[in-house]
Amino acid sequence: MRILSDEPFSVEYLLTEQPAVTTATPVKYRAFVDSLNALLSPRTLNLREMKAMYDCIELYGLEEGAVLALVGYCMEQKGRRVSCNYIRSVAESWSEDGIKTQAQAEAYVADYRMQKHGATEVLRRWNKRRPPTVDEMALYDTWINEWGFDAETILAVCARMTDVSTPSFAILNDRLQTMKEQNLTSVTEIERTEQKDALDREFARMVFARLGKVEIPSLSNVRQLAMFRDEKGISREAILLAADECAGAERPLGLLKKILSDWAQNGVGTAEDAEKHLRKKESSPARRQKRNKALVYEQTPISEDDFNRLVVDLNEDL
User: Which residues contact 126 (CB under 8 A, 6 or more apart)?
Assistant: First the structure.
């Protein structure tokens, strides 16, 4: 046997048929062997495996620090039990590519890790070929490790940023934060929400058509109509009935909001409830021009203050 190091104490067992090796080599590489043992711990290398490590230095010309970086890189590729023959073959490849110094090896490994990092995939999705910055990689790690997103979901959100002329990690971070607050952290949840949003927009267009409005509903219009349906419990059919009653009014959106708010307070939810409620009312101003149906709201004396409040309410857009 021969002693490799004193602290910690380490020896190599030599084969009896193998010529004895002088202690010059182990002494020369004592610091290297200590660092290698610390990197591989608790794994220990036998004589043949240690010879493969020496070959990386003596045969392929890599610096000791470069070999340590090489071993770490190979463990990332193949796991902690990576074969020393594999390490030696990679050392040969590095040597042929001119990667021999510690600085060159560390730069190569850093570039590999950066290329492997998910932040690089985000940049590629935006057709940006530069490497990600440290801050961008930190943001990506936050999305994955703290916010609960996976790589597939993050890339799916990137693909949906077509409304942004110059996408960035800051904008993507804002969108992911909003989604996190809405508990949308998977592709399935995103697609389900998108489908609902599409249905909400289509329904808003139907309401506008019933009102006689030709413009496209704004996002605020869409959300408020969805609120009356989802939160106040008024069915689509009932909302369309209300829209029919408001067609021709001077401010149909404001009047529609007033009717739906009144129905929500009175528990009107279904189309049948809406029709019964309408029959109890007198004709509205909108329906006096269009007598197909009768909507009546009870006429009561109104003060100047009441009138001012009514005007303000009717001026509110959905």
Answer: 158, 167
